[in-house]
Design brief:
Helix content is 3%, strand content 37%. It is globular and about 40 Å long.
Amino acid sequence: MVSGRALDPNTAQTPGMTRAAAITHARAGAEKLWAGTVTIHPNAKTGAHHHGDLESVIYVLRGRARMRWGAALEFTAEAGPGDFIYVPPFVPHQEINASRDEPLDCVLVRSGQEPVVVNLDIAAAEEPEEVKWIDSIHQH
């Protein structure tokens, strides 16, 4: 077990967010995954980045997340508390806190131990295309 008060901020960072490691090989003996938290301050956005060949899952605990992705960050979707976001390998993306007043707190899980963060120099798309998250659970 790793206490939420004992997370390790000594992990790869991206401008605009704060990551903290919980489950790693060094801390918990994990062999094939990494887990931790990420906080994005009110009205803040991260720089564009990707995580190499790793898959990522983001679970929104508190706040409103706006995710942009694509070669030119041309797609966007929003997620709130209880929602999961899947980020495939090598996909450029940017996390945005859609709230001006509250922090965005998430749990982050990746498919590997290496803290791969490739920060990119991508200009934000002028008018991103909104892609609705519609499946058997999210009908609207």
